[in-house]
Amino acid sequence: MNADTLIKTAQAMVEPGKGVLAADESTGTIKKRFDSINVESVEETRRAYRDMLFTTPGMEDFVSSVILFEETLYQKSSDGTPFSKLLADKGVIPGIKVDKGAKPLAGAEGETVTEGLDGLRERLIEYRKAGARFAKWRAVITIGDGIPTDYCIQANAHALARYAALCQEQDIVPIVEPEVLMDADNSIEVCEDVTSRTLQAVFAELDQQGVLLEGMLLKPNMVISGKQCPTQADVQTVAEATVRTLKRYVPSAVPGIVFLSGGQSDELATAHLDAMNKIGDLPWALSFSYGRALQAPALAAWGGKNENVAAGQRAFFHRAKCNSAAAKGEYTSAMEQAA
Protein backbone atom coordinates (compact mmCIF):
# COMPACT_ATOMS: atom_id res chain seq x y z
CA MET A 1 0.00 0.00 0.00
CA ASN A 2 1.33 3.41 -1.03
CA ALA A 3 -0.23 5.75 1.52
CA ASP A 4 0.93 8.87 -0.31
CA THR A 5 -0.76 7.80 -3.54
CA LEU A 6 -4.01 7.00 -1.75
CA ILE A 7 -4.05 10.28 0.17
CA LYS A 8 -3.31 12.40 -2.90
CA THR A 9 -6.03 10.68 -4.94
CA ALA A 10 -8.63 10.97 -2.19
CA GLN A 11 -7.87 14.65 -1.71
CA ALA A 12 -8.06 15.31 -5.45
CA MET A 13 -11.51 13.73 -5.55
CA VAL A 14 -12.86 16.31 -3.10
CA GLU A 15 -11.03 19.34 -4.45
CA PRO A 16 -13.07 22.43 -3.48
CA GLY A 17 -16.13 22.80 -5.69
CA LYS A 18 -15.81 19.37 -7.28
CA GLY A 19 -17.65 16.10 -6.77
CA VAL A 20 -18.15 12.63 -8.15
CA LEU A 21 -20.41 11.60 -11.03
CA ALA A 22 -21.95 8.20 -10.29
CA ALA A 23 -22.28 6.67 -13.78
CA ASP A 24 -22.05 3.11 -12.48
CA GLU A 25 -25.64 2.00 -12.99
CA SER A 26 -25.88 -1.74 -13.45
CA THR A 27 -27.32 -3.09 -16.69
CA GLY A 28 -30.67 -3.59 -14.94
CA THR A 29 -30.76 -0.08 -13.49
CA ILE A 30 -29.78 1.69 -16.70
CA LYS A 31 -32.50 -0.29 -18.50
CA LYS A 32 -35.08 1.23 -16.16
CA ARG A 33 -33.70 4.70 -16.88
CA PHE A 34 -33.77 4.07 -20.63
CA ASP A 35 -37.29 2.62 -20.43
CA SER A 36 -38.43 5.97 -19.04
CA ILE A 37 -37.37 7.66 -22.31
CA ASN A 38 -38.35 4.75 -24.58
CA VAL A 39 -34.78 3.90 -25.56
CA GLU A 40 -33.62 0.30 -25.88
CA SER A 41 -30.84 -0.58 -23.47
CA VAL A 42 -28.15 -2.29 -25.51
CA GLU A 43 -24.39 -1.92 -25.24
CA GLU A 44 -24.19 0.74 -27.96
CA THR A 45 -26.91 2.99 -26.50
CA ARG A 46 -25.32 2.69 -23.06
CA ARG A 47 -21.94 3.58 -24.56
CA ALA A 48 -23.37 6.54 -26.49
CA TYR A 49 -25.12 7.90 -23.41
CA ARG A 50 -22.01 7.74 -21.23
CA ASP A 51 -19.99 9.22 -24.12
CA MET A 52 -22.33 12.22 -24.15
CA LEU A 53 -21.77 12.80 -20.43
CA PHE A 54 -18.01 12.30 -20.45
CA THR A 55 -17.37 14.56 -23.45
CA THR A 56 -19.40 17.45 -22.05
CA PRO A 57 -17.21 20.55 -22.47
CA GLY A 58 -16.16 21.98 -19.11
CA MET A 59 -17.49 19.11 -16.96
CA GLU A 60 -14.01 18.82 -15.45
CA ASP A 61 -14.50 22.20 -13.78
CA PHE A 62 -17.14 20.65 -11.51
CA VAL A 63 -16.57 16.89 -11.62
CA SER A 64 -13.37 15.49 -10.12
CA SER A 65 -14.04 11.82 -10.81
CA VAL A 66 -16.48 9.34 -12.33
CA ILE A 67 -17.62 5.95 -11.03
CA LEU A 68 -17.91 3.52 -13.94
CA PHE A 69 -19.71 0.21 -14.33
CA GLU A 70 -17.40 -2.64 -15.38
CA GLU A 71 -18.78 -2.61 -18.94
CA THR A 72 -18.14 1.14 -19.21
CA LEU A 73 -14.56 0.89 -17.96
CA TYR A 74 -13.66 -1.11 -21.06
CA GLN A 75 -15.72 0.91 -23.56
CA LYS A 76 -14.47 3.67 -25.84
CA SER A 77 -15.60 7.10 -26.94
CA SER A 78 -16.85 7.59 -30.49
CA ASP A 79 -13.33 8.58 -31.59
CA GLY A 80 -11.87 5.32 -30.27
CA THR A 81 -10.39 6.69 -27.04
CA PRO A 82 -10.96 4.41 -24.02
CA PHE A 83 -13.24 6.13 -21.54
CA SER A 84 -10.67 5.80 -18.76
CA LYS A 85 -8.10 7.67 -20.89
CA LEU A 86 -10.61 10.25 -22.10
CA LEU A 87 -11.46 11.11 -18.50
CA ALA A 88 -7.87 11.06 -17.27
CA ASP A 89 -6.80 13.37 -20.11
CA LYS A 90 -9.39 15.89 -18.86
CA GLY A 91 -8.03 15.62 -15.32
CA VAL A 92 -11.03 13.53 -14.21
CA ILE A 93 -10.20 10.43 -12.13
CA PRO A 94 -11.80 7.17 -13.35
CA GLY A 95 -13.16 4.69 -10.82
CA ILE A 96 -15.11 1.44 -10.75
CA LYS A 97 -18.09 -0.09 -8.94
CA VAL A 98 -16.86 -3.46 -7.65
CA ASP A 99 -19.66 -4.96 -5.55
CA LYS A 100 -22.00 -7.62 -6.92
CA GLY A 101 -25.17 -6.25 -5.39
CA ALA A 102 -27.23 -6.65 -2.25
CA LYS A 103 -28.52 -10.19 -1.62
CA PRO A 104 -30.86 -11.56 1.08
CA LEU A 105 -29.09 -11.90 4.42
CA ALA A 106 -29.47 -15.42 5.82
CA GLY A 107 -31.64 -15.51 8.89
CA ALA A 108 -32.72 -11.88 8.58
CA GLU A 109 -35.98 -11.48 6.71
CA GLY A 110 -36.22 -8.22 4.77
CA GLU A 111 -32.52 -7.42 5.14
CA THR A 112 -29.59 -7.72 2.75
CA VAL A 113 -25.82 -8.00 2.67
CA THR A 114 -23.70 -6.95 -0.30
CA GLU A 115 -21.71 -9.65 -2.05
CA GLY A 116 -18.61 -9.51 -4.23
CA LEU A 117 -15.60 -10.14 -2.00
CA ASP A 118 -14.71 -13.46 -3.66
CA GLY A 119 -12.07 -12.80 -6.29
CA LEU A 120 -12.03 -9.06 -5.56
CA ARG A 121 -8.25 -8.86 -5.14
CA GLU A 122 -7.70 -10.26 -8.63
CA ARG A 123 -10.39 -8.03 -10.16
CA LEU A 124 -8.87 -4.94 -8.56
CA ILE A 125 -5.51 -5.72 -10.15
CA GLU A 126 -7.18 -5.83 -13.57
CA TYR A 127 -9.25 -2.71 -12.94
CA ARG A 128 -6.15 -0.74 -12.01
CA LYS A 129 -4.46 -1.88 -15.22
CA ALA A 130 -7.51 -0.57 -17.09
CA GLY A 131 -7.13 2.86 -15.48
CA ALA A 132 -9.30 2.78 -12.35
CA ARG A 133 -7.87 4.78 -9.44
CA PHE A 134 -10.73 4.39 -6.98
CA ALA A 135 -13.61 1.99 -6.35
CA LYS A 136 -17.06 1.93 -4.80
CA TRP A 137 -18.98 -0.64 -2.73
CA ARG A 138 -22.60 -0.05 -1.65
CA ALA A 139 -24.18 -1.57 1.44
CA VAL A 140 -27.96 -1.28 1.82
CA ILE A 141 -29.62 -0.74 5.20
CA THR A 142 -33.42 -0.91 5.20
CA ILE A 143 -35.67 0.74 7.77
CA GLY A 144 -38.82 -1.22 8.64
CA ASP A 145 -40.68 -3.05 11.37
CA GLY A 146 -37.93 -4.24 13.72
CA ILE A 147 -35.16 -3.55 11.21
CA PRO A 148 -32.37 -2.89 10.71
CA THR A 149 -30.99 -5.43 13.14
CA ASP A 150 -27.53 -5.11 14.63
CA TYR A 151 -26.71 -8.34 12.76
CA CYS A 152 -27.43 -6.72 9.39
CA ILE A 153 -25.52 -3.55 10.19
CA GLN A 154 -22.52 -5.51 11.44
CA ALA A 155 -22.47 -7.89 8.45
CA ASN A 156 -22.44 -4.98 6.01
CA ALA A 157 -19.90 -2.99 8.01
CA HIS A 158 -17.55 -5.98 8.00
CA ALA A 159 -17.88 -6.43 4.23
CA LEU A 160 -17.32 -2.72 3.60
CA ALA A 161 -14.10 -2.79 5.63
CA ARG A 162 -12.82 -5.93 3.91
CA TYR A 163 -13.47 -4.32 0.53
CA ALA A 164 -11.74 -1.09 1.60
CA ALA A 165 -8.64 -2.93 2.82
CA LEU A 166 -8.38 -4.88 -0.43
CA CYS A 167 -8.67 -1.66 -2.44
CA GLN A 168 -5.93 0.10 -0.51
CA GLU A 169 -3.68 -2.92 -0.95
CA GLN A 170 -3.80 -2.15 -4.70
CA ASP A 171 -3.43 1.64 -4.25
CA ILE A 172 -7.09 2.12 -5.15
CA VAL A 173 -9.05 4.62 -3.04
CA PRO A 174 -12.20 3.00 -1.61
CA ILE A 175 -15.46 4.89 -1.52
CA VAL A 176 -17.29 3.35 1.43
CA GLU A 177 -21.05 3.59 0.86
CA PRO A 178 -23.37 2.55 3.70
CA GLU A 179 -26.78 3.64 2.43
CA VAL A 180 -29.69 3.86 4.83
CA LEU A 181 -32.64 3.78 2.44
CA MET A 182 -35.19 6.60 2.54
CA ASP A 183 -38.10 4.65 1.03
CA ALA A 184 -40.18 3.99 4.16
CA ASP A 185 -42.54 6.10 6.29
CA ASN A 186 -40.05 6.77 9.07
CA SER A 187 -39.42 10.15 10.63
CA ILE A 188 -36.12 12.00 10.31
CA GLU A 189 -35.40 11.06 13.96
CA VAL A 190 -35.51 7.36 13.07
CA CYS A 191 -33.21 7.96 10.11
CA GLU A 192 -30.76 9.77 12.38
CA ASP A 193 -30.75 6.87 14.84
CA VAL A 194 -30.19 4.22 12.15
CA THR A 195 -27.56 6.30 10.36
CA SER A 196 -25.73 6.79 13.66
CA ARG A 197 -25.74 3.06 14.43
CA THR A 198 -24.53 2.29 10.92
CA LEU A 199 -21.68 4.80 10.85
CA GLN A 200 -20.51 3.77 14.30
CA ALA A 201 -20.28 0.12 13.18
CA VAL A 202 -18.62 0.95 9.86
CA PHE A 203 -15.81 3.00 11.36
CA ALA A 204 -15.22 0.44 14.11
CA GLU A 205 -14.70 -2.20 11.39
CA LEU A 206 -12.52 0.10 9.28
CA ASP A 207 -10.31 0.64 12.30
CA GLN A 208 -10.24 -3.07 13.14
CA GLN A 209 -9.10 -3.94 9.61
CA GLY A 210 -6.43 -1.26 9.38
CA VAL A 211 -7.99 0.91 6.68
CA LEU A 212 -6.16 4.20 6.16
CA LEU A 213 -8.86 6.80 6.81
CA GLU A 214 -6.88 9.53 5.04
CA GLY A 215 -6.96 7.41 1.88
CA MET A 216 -10.71 6.75 1.62
CA LEU A 217 -13.97 8.63 1.09
CA LEU A 218 -17.36 8.11 2.72
CA LYS A 219 -20.55 8.06 0.61
CA PRO A 220 -23.48 8.14 3.05
CA ASN A 221 -27.15 8.97 2.86
CA MET A 222 -28.36 12.28 4.18
CA VAL A 223 -30.35 12.22 7.42
CA ILE A 224 -33.80 12.75 5.97
CA SER A 225 -37.46 11.81 6.38
CA GLY A 226 -38.61 8.61 4.70
CA LYS A 227 -40.35 9.22 1.38
CA GLN A 228 -43.66 7.94 2.76
CA CYS A 229 -43.49 9.99 5.96
CA PRO A 230 -46.45 12.42 6.07
CA THR A 231 -44.25 15.10 7.64
CA GLN A 232 -41.17 15.92 5.61
CA ALA A 233 -38.29 17.70 7.35
CA ASP A 234 -37.32 20.98 5.73
CA VAL A 235 -33.95 21.68 4.11
CA GLN A 236 -32.36 23.32 7.14
CA THR A 237 -33.49 20.56 9.50
CA VAL A 238 -32.02 17.91 7.17
CA ALA A 239 -28.76 19.83 6.94
CA GLU A 240 -28.44 20.25 10.71
CA ALA A 241 -29.32 16.61 11.48
CA THR A 242 -26.91 15.30 8.86
CA VAL A 243 -23.97 17.45 9.96
CA ARG A 244 -24.66 16.64 13.63
CA THR A 245 -24.63 12.91 12.92
CA LEU A 246 -21.49 13.04 10.79
CA LYS A 247 -19.60 15.08 13.39
CA ARG A 248 -20.42 12.47 16.01
CA TYR A 249 -19.37 9.39 14.06
CA VAL A 250 -17.03 10.27 11.15
CA PRO A 251 -13.39 10.88 12.13
CA SER A 252 -11.82 14.11 10.94
CA ALA A 253 -9.03 12.08 9.28
CA VAL A 254 -11.45 11.22 6.45
CA PRO A 255 -10.74 13.82 3.73
CA GLY A 256 -14.20 13.97 2.25
CA ILE A 257 -17.82 12.91 2.39
CA VAL A 258 -19.60 12.62 -0.95
CA PHE A 259 -23.33 12.16 -0.53
CA LEU A 260 -25.60 9.89 -2.50
CA SER A 261 -28.85 11.50 -3.60
CA GLY A 262 -31.01 8.47 -2.77
CA GLY A 263 -33.86 9.33 -5.10
CA GLN A 264 -34.22 12.98 -4.06
CA SER A 265 -35.22 15.43 -6.77
CA ASP A 266 -32.37 17.17 -8.58
CA GLU A 267 -32.87 20.55 -6.95
CA LEU A 268 -33.60 19.22 -3.45
CA ALA A 269 -30.37 17.19 -3.39
CA THR A 270 -28.49 20.34 -4.37
CA ALA A 271 -30.27 22.49 -1.79
CA HIS A 272 -29.52 20.01 1.01
CA LEU A 273 -25.81 19.90 0.14
CA ASP A 274 -25.64 23.69 -0.01
CA ALA A 275 -27.33 24.11 3.39
CA MET A 276 -24.82 21.74 5.00
CA ASN A 277 -21.87 23.66 3.62
CA LYS A 278 -23.39 26.96 4.72
CA ILE A 279 -23.28 25.65 8.32
CA GLY A 280 -19.48 25.78 8.08
CA ASP A 281 -16.81 24.68 10.56
CA LEU A 282 -16.59 21.22 9.01
CA PRO A 283 -13.59 18.89 9.51
CA TRP A 284 -14.01 17.23 6.10
CA ALA A 285 -15.05 18.35 2.62
CA LEU A 286 -18.77 17.83 1.94
CA SER A 287 -19.56 17.21 -1.72
CA PHE A 288 -21.67 15.04 -4.00
CA SER A 289 -21.57 11.63 -5.62
CA TYR A 290 -24.88 11.81 -7.41
CA GLY A 291 -26.26 9.54 -10.10
CA ARG A 292 -29.87 10.33 -10.93
CA ALA A 293 -29.71 13.83 -9.38
CA LEU A 294 -26.95 14.76 -11.85
CA GLN A 295 -28.17 12.79 -14.85
CA ALA A 296 -31.99 12.92 -14.94
CA PRO A 297 -32.30 16.22 -16.86
CA ALA A 298 -29.54 15.17 -19.26
CA LEU A 299 -31.17 11.80 -19.91
CA ALA A 300 -34.50 13.45 -20.68
CA ALA A 301 -32.96 16.09 -22.95
CA TRP A 302 -30.94 13.47 -24.87
CA GLY A 303 -33.78 11.02 -25.43
CA GLY A 304 -31.49 8.61 -27.24
CA LYS A 305 -31.12 10.88 -30.28
CA ASN A 306 -27.80 12.00 -31.74
CA GLU A 307 -29.22 15.40 -32.62
CA ASN A 308 -29.95 15.98 -28.91
CA VAL A 309 -26.42 15.35 -27.61
CA ALA A 310 -25.67 19.07 -27.21
CA ALA A 311 -28.95 19.59 -25.32
CA GLY A 312 -28.16 16.67 -23.03
CA GLN A 313 -24.70 18.06 -22.35
CA ARG A 314 -26.10 21.50 -21.51
CA ALA A 315 -28.48 19.93 -19.00
CA PHE A 316 -25.70 17.89 -17.42
CA PHE A 317 -23.36 20.89 -17.28
CA HIS A 318 -26.03 22.95 -15.53
CA ARG A 319 -26.66 20.38 -12.79
CA ALA A 320 -22.93 19.85 -12.29
CA LYS A 321 -22.41 23.60 -12.00
CA CYS A 322 -25.21 23.97 -9.44
CA ASN A 323 -23.85 21.11 -7.33
CA SER A 324 -20.36 22.57 -7.54
CA ALA A 325 -21.74 25.79 -6.07
CA ALA A 326 -23.54 23.78 -3.36
CA ALA A 327 -20.28 22.04 -2.45
CA LYS A 328 -18.92 25.50 -1.64
CA GLY A 329 -22.09 26.77 0.07
CA GLU A 330 -22.67 29.23 -2.78
CA TYR A 331 -25.80 27.82 -4.40
CA THR A 332 -28.95 29.92 -4.80
CA SER A 333 -32.31 28.95 -6.23
CA ALA A 334 -31.85 31.77 -8.74
CA MET A 335 -29.16 29.66 -10.40
CA GLU A 336 -31.88 27.28 -11.58
CA GLN A 337 -33.49 30.01 -13.64
CA ALA A 338 -30.33 30.25 -15.72
CA ALA A 339 -30.80 26.72 -17.08
Automatic annotation (TrEMBL):
It comes from the Bacteria. Coiled coil: none annotated. The keyword Cell membrane does not apply. It catalyses: beta-D-fructose 1,6-bisphosphate = D-glyceraldehyde 3-phosphate + dihydroxyacetone phosphate. Keywords: Glycolysis, Lyase. Pfam families: Glycolytic. Gene3D superfamilies: Aldolase class I. One of its GO terms (molecular function) is fructose-bisphosphate aldolase activity. Its EC number is 4.1.2.13. GO terms for biological process: glycolytic process. Belongs to the class I fructose-bisphosphate aldolase family. This is Fructose-bisphosphate aldolase.
